[in-house]
Amino acid sequence: QVQLVQSGAEVKKPGASVKVSCKASGYTFTSYAMHWVRQAPGQRLEWMGWINAGNGNTKYSQKFQGRVTITRDTSASTAYMELSGLRSEDTAVYYCARTTPGCGGDCRHDYWGQGTLVTVSS
Amino acid sequence: DIQMTQSPSSLSASVGDRVTITCRASQSISSYLNWYQQKPGKAPKLLIYAASSLQSGVPSRFSGSGSGTDFTLTISSLQPEDFAVYYCQQTYRSPLTFGGGTKVEIK
Q1: Nearest Cβ partner of A112 from B34, B43, B95?
Q2: Which one of B32, B44, B98 has the shortest CB-CB distance to A105?
Q3: What DSSP string describes A46-93?
Q4: Residue of A nearest to B4 (CA)
Q5: CB A95 to CB B98 under 8 A?
Q6: Confidence check: pLDDT of A22 > 90
Q7: Are the CB atoms for B51 and B89 separated by under 8 Å?
Q8: How distant is the Cα of A64 from the closest Cα of chain B, in angstroms?
Q9: Record: contact B43-A115, CB cut-off 8 A
Q10: Percent of chain A with pLDDT over 70
Q11: Which residues of B touch A113 (CB under 8 A)?
Q12: Is B103 helix (H, G, I), strand (E, B) or coil?
């Protein structure tokens, strides 16, 4: 069965960086994209960017451009999301989501990780 | 960016009720619209993709319709496990964007 298991909760100071991992199992890792979505407390879901797990190509939301880096390790079937220059507004639950090919058209997040709470506080 | 607006933001309903949630896009997105269900403290779950296709394993009481800018999620007979927040999402153009959510509460 498909599973996405994320790393544990993090507490960071403003200005620091955080790197969240997402280990995939139960499917061919390189056949799907991995997207990252976050949710601040009481807020709507917010898309951050994605990586083509096969070729490593990435695309980021303009909102996070320059601060977010998504990478993957195919040998470990793991995707990573690193966010730098943290500020209090980045306090949120961060999700990875397996995504079918075709975004910019028909695609869908069909499996999600359990979420990782990142708290930014001085 | 394409703005997604859901209505209502919340509703109260009883078990067995028919529930309809609407989602409007700020421009045409063809049928590139997904619906997700989220329960407290849990990750979202895909219900409907491409506006009207039911995700595998999702009960048939959930259905979706619409194209262009106006979309609807319908729950034909509300069950106790359906009380949750529902989000629409457009995948027509980057950045992918979500609606503000509709909270379905017990009356």
Answers
A1: B43
A2: B32
A3: EEEEEEETTT--EEE-TTTTTTEEEEEEGGGTEEEEEE-S--GGG-EE
A4: A44
A5: no
A6: yes
A7: no
A8: 11
A9: yes
A10: 100
A11: 43
A12: strand
CB pairs under 8 A between A and B: 62
Q: In terms of Cα–Cα distance, which of B85, B100, B76, B99 is closest to B29?
A: B99
Q: Residue A60: CA atoms inside 13 Å, Cβ hemisphere, count?
A: 13
Task: Quickly state the pLDDT bin for B52 (edges 50, 70, 90).
Answer: very high
Residue with tokens 């969240």: A20
**Amino acid occupying residue A28:** T
The backbone torsions φ and ψ at residue B8, rounded to the nearest 5 degrees and listed phi first, read -75, 175
The residue written with tokens 């960071």 in the block is A12
* The residue type at B61: R
First-last CA distance in chain A: 40
Give the model confidence (pLDDT) of A69-109 as tens digits: 999 999 999 999 999 999 999 999 999 999 998 888 889 99
Torsion of CA A9, A88, A4, A32, to 10 degrees: -160
Interface of B with A in 19-48 (CB under 8 A): 31-32, 34, 36, 43-46
Cα(A17)–Cα(A21) distance, rounded to whole angstroms?
13
Angstrom CA distances, A104 to A96, B29, B35, stand at 19, 10, 17
Could you report the per-residue pLDDT of B10-46, keeping only the tens digit for each?
999 999 999 999 999 999 999 999 999 999 999 999 9
